[in-house]
Amino acid sequence: MFLSDSHCHLQYYPSGNNLPYNVNDVVSDSIKNNVRCMLSVSVKLDDFKNFKIRSDLRKYIYFSCGVHPLMIDKNINFDVLLKASNSKDIVAIGETGLDYQRNCSSEDMDFQRFSFLKHIKVAKKLKKPIIIHMRNSFEDVYKIVREEGLEECGAIIHCFTGNKYQAKIFLDLGMYISFSGVVTFQNSHEVKSSAKFVPMDRLMIETDSPYLSPVPLRGRMNKPSNLIHIADCVSSIKNIDISVFTTKTTENFFRLFKDIPFHQINL
Q1: Is 95 annotated as a binding residue?
Q2: To the nearest 5 percent, what fractions of the chain are helix, strand and coil?
Q3: Is 208 annotated as a binding residue?
Q4: What is the DSSP string of 60-95?
């Protein structure tokens, strides 16, 4: 079995011996649990630069470059984003997108949209897929991706929590959809329905660790090794054998994140 975590934040685990988890132990544990490829997603421009891990584990990890919509500094230099993203170590742009949380001002929303468009410009220029964060912002995200057109770079909506209608809208635009531990939650009926609806050739799974631990591990810090619980849940929802499910989602992972050298991954 080969599991690929399409969205985690390994930079949030310490590189030293601080509790509760050391990043090297997190990655080692993930490999032992068949998670053989992890996309560590940036939320700030310096995430990749500050990341440290034992060198023999580095081959299992790939990186994105971008600024989360809630982490945007209005003094950000988007030329730096372009330069940093052009590294061969960067296989995707983001995470970016729109997050209209409570108390989000109209000025904040405007700057989020501006930043999102700048990330899209970088993704299209470099022909690297873009990772989209969407919370309370479906209509604006849809309007932007429809008008911009992401066919030349590819895109994924991460941690999808929308309904089937919203899923279809993004699928019709050629995008991928990823499900996190939210799909395992007891009351996530709408998300489960969406997971059942999304075809296997457009579906991926993620932990979004260290957040959103899946059932039966809620309340604990999440890790990529917990991806198996999400795979179990979604494969059951779709009534697909888990070995077939993990093969298909891994194929999708390497199809979208095409700069990851599949042949170099230790199966």
Answers
A1: yes
A2: 45, 15, 40
A3: yes
A4: GEEEEE---TTS--TT--HHHHHHHHTSTTEEEEEE
263 in a known ligand binding site? no
DSSP secondary structure code for residue 44 in this structure: S
Domains of the chain: 3-264 (3.20.20.140)
Residue 230, pLDDT score: 98
End-to-end CA gap in the chain:
9
Q: Which of 193, 176, 185 is nearest to 248 (CA)?
A: 176
7 is in an annotated binding site: yes
Is the omega angle on the peptide bond into residue 14 within 30 degrees of 0, that is, cis? no
Q: What is the pLDDT of residues 152-182, one digit of tens each?
A: 999 999 999 999 999 999 999 999 999 999 9
Residue 229 marked as a ligand binder: no
Residue 60, amino acid: Y
Place of tokens 């660790």: 209
| CB distance 56 to 62 below 8 Å | no
What is the rounded CA–CA span in Å between residue 260 and residue 247? 16
For the segment 85-92, the average pLDDT, to the nearest whole number, is: 94
CA distances to 49, 95, 101, 149 from 70, rounded to whole Å, are 20, 11, 9, 24
Evaluate if pTM is beyond 0.85: yes
Tokens coding 13: 């685990």
